[in-house]
Write a structure and sequence with these properties.
Largest sheet: 8 strands, mixed
Structural class: alpha/beta
Order of helices and strands: EEEHEHEHEHHHEHEHH
Helix content: 25-40%
Mean pLDDT: 85
Distance between the termini: 20 Å
Number of strands: 8
CATH topology: Rossmann fold
Strand order of the largest sheet: 1-2-4-3-5-6-7-8
Number of domains: 1
Oligomer: single chain
Strand content: 15-25%
Low-confidence stretches: 131-175
CATH superfamily: Alpha/Beta hydrolase fold, catalytic domain
Number of helices: 9
CATH class: Alpha Beta
CATH architecture: 3-Layer(aba) Sandwich
Length: 257
């Protein structure tokens, strides 16, 4: 039985991560501007039946900003080597929210991540039709509003909220400092072509009021991923797993059995 939060060096990056529970491994990857703390309510529930591993991506939470301007591929490579370092040979399931979903889509699409089951929650990866500059600014602004206004997020208005305000709050993308170039690279990449490569049973969970990664993105992913199921929740936003914690937890638990 694991129950600890520690640091580890992967690809010359210090990574903060948490490992709880026992049994089959479920890896959780958080969204842009968040950290592993945002997954705590869901992780606590899942760790009753699984070994849950979650990490702070470089540039978020307690993991320092990358030494260079990373792309999605760099984050995929980081996750791959992170699992190797933890001696996880068989990852049963991966759960990705927003940016974490983006990393999962490319990781599976390039053959670097090979879980048995996939759960994408309000996942990113579909390039908006707007211009890049407009998309970057709008996405960052929406992210700030969505995260800080999510009802379930009230439980976490401490360090995580402060971190988000400092890096990705009302000043938007322009004040993202070291992460700005990474952010531009990330939102430029359309991962639609990788979706058919996901052959694993896949559960898509979405908030119908999600204005950052809209429900139309979910429907496109559902159409491209052969063995997928889409479940959407009315009156829930980009953080559907906080807005509808009980229902989402039950849906995930049933899917993983």
């Amino acid at each position: 039985m694991y129950n600890h939060k520690v640091n580890i060096v992967v690809n010359d990056q210090l990574i903060s991560y948490q490992r709880t529970g026992a049994g089959q491994v479920v890896l959780m990857l958080h969204g842009w501007g968040a950290s592993l703390k945002s997954f705590k309510p869901l992780a606590d529930e899942l760790s009753r039946s699984y070994q849950v591993i979650s990490l702070d991506f470089p540039g978020f939470g307690n993991s320092p900003v990358p030494h260079s301007s990373w792309s999605v591929s760099d984050y995929v490579d980081l996750v791959k080597h992170f699992l190797v370092k933890l001696r996880v040979k068989d990852c049963y399931a991966v759960i990705g929210h927003s940016f974490g979903g983006r990393v999962i889509i490319k990781g599976i699409g390039t053959g670097q991540l090979t879980p048995q089951r996939v759960i994408l929650i309000d996942a990113a990866g579909i390039k908006p039709k707007d211009t890049i500059k407009g998309s970057v600014l709008a996405s960052s602004a929406k992210a700030g509003k969505v995260i800080l206004s999510t009802p379930g997020f009230n439980r976490f208005k401490d360090k995580l909220t402060q971190q988000f305000r400092l890096k990705f709050g009302s000043s938007d993308y322009q004040d993202a400092n070291e992460m700005s170039e990474i952010f531009k690279k990330v939102v430029r990449e359309d991962l639609t072509s990788y979706l058919p490569s996901i052959k694993q049973p896949t559960l898509l969970l979405w908030g119908e009021d999600d204005n950052e990664t809209p429900l139309s993105d979910a429907k496109l992913m559902h159409s491209k991923i052969a063995d997928s199921k889409l479940v959407s929740y009315p009156n829930a936003g980009h953080y559907v797993y906080l807005d509808e914690l009980k229902q989402v937890t039950e849906k995930i638990s049933g899917f993983l059995k």
